Amino acid sequence: MNFGSIMTAMVTPFTESGDIDYTATRNLINHLLANGTDALVVAGTTGESPTLTNEEKVELFKFTVQTVAGRAPVIAGTGSNSTRESIDLTIQAEEAGVDGIMLVVPYYNKPCQDGLYQHFKTIAQTTTLPVMLYNIPGRSALNMLPETIIRLADVPNITSVKEASGDLDAVASIIEHTGDDFFVYTGDDSSTLPVLAIGGTGVVSVSAHIIGNEMQEMIHQFRSGNTKQAAAIHRRLLPIMKAMFAAPNPSPTKAALNLTGVPVGGVRLPMIALSDEEVASLKNVLELDDRAAVGF
């Protein structure tokens, strides 16, 4: 299943007391769908999944599905470093009505490549939903090799990968050795255009919270053959993309949303809010001293 060009890894809005803010979540969902988002990833890294209980995740899945009401695919982050726990959450996510599952490489316990294969295959076999693999060695302390991803692509409902290793050679190898029905997304916003250029499908984005329409325009120009224009947009967007990761994600993204009139609250510990100096730097990148919001 192709989930579109831009899948936004949605932040989880919180109230001042630290609970999930469902009113803000509804407003955020509608904002994203109106501003360049083709599909939503819920309870992923950007959604602060390590701080959410499984009960909170299931309620968030249900609420998002109800709010989206068929306007876009909803992808549930159900991966963990426990195969059994991931299976249980995947089953509950399917019952909640989501359209797909995203499974992160198991963190901390560092299985071998065959262990990764068995982990993902076992979870995929418990659901009828399409599964997106998620390779992010910077957070999981383990890199899933292209050979393992290519092998997993033969599992019927493993249909895509979010590749956030930053290795374009690995991305090219995956694209080259999988079929047209396997979709390769980058997990790095600044790699969106390079990955498209080597045959990738799109991006699972953080920056799309702020510049979704601009990113869609870049992709449209590239696919229309206007590569020079696409490259110019890419260069203009890079400072904002970099700003979203100037501090640990999602603190900059939540700050940017709050600054641009889309309230989402703060972050849960162990994440912390941006410092005053970091907020000032972010405002400068977003040009908020001169304009109400980003745009070109």
Tell me about the biggest sheet? 8 strands, parallel, barrel
Percentage of residues in DSSP E strands = 5-15%
Categorize the overall geometry. globular
CATH topology: TIM Barrel
- Whole-angstrom Rg: 18 Å
Oligomeric state of the chains present here: single chain
- Helix amount, in percent? 40-55%
Instruction: State the end-to-end CA separation.
Output: 32 Å
How many structural units, i.e. domains? 1
Stretches where pLDDT is under 50 for at least 5 consecutive residues are: 289-293
**How many E-type strands?**
8
List the helices and strands and how they pair.
Elements: E1 6-9, H1 22-33, E2 39-42, H2 54-68, E3 74-77, H3 83-96, E4 100-104, H4 113-124, E5 131-135, H5 137-140, H6 146-152, E6 158-163, H7 168-176, E7 183-186, H8 192-197, E8 202-205, H9 208-223, H10 227-243, H11 251-259, H12 276-286
Parallel strand pairs: 1-2, 1-8, 2-3, 3-4, 4-5, 5-6, 6-7, 7-8
Description of the structure:
The structure is a single chain. Helix 2 links the parallel strand 2 (39-42) and strand 3. Strands 1-2-3-4-5-6-7-8 form an 8-stranded parallel beta barrel, surrounded by 6 helices. It contains 12 helices and 8 strands. It has helices at 22-33, 54-68, 83-96, 113-124, 137-140, 146-152, 168-176, 192-197, 208-223, 227-243, 251-259, 276-286, and strands spanning 6-9, 39-42, 74-77, 100-104, 131-135, 158-163, 183-186, 202-205. It has a single domain, classed as TIM Barrel (Alpha-Beta Barrel). Helix 1 (22-33) packs across helix 2, helix 2 packs parallel to helix 3 (83-96) and helix 3 (83-96) runs parallel beside helix 4 (113-124). It is α/β, with parallel strands linked by helices and 296 residues long. The longest helix has 17 residues, at 227-243. Mean pLDDT is 96; it is low at 289-293. 45% of the residues lie in helices and 12% in strands.
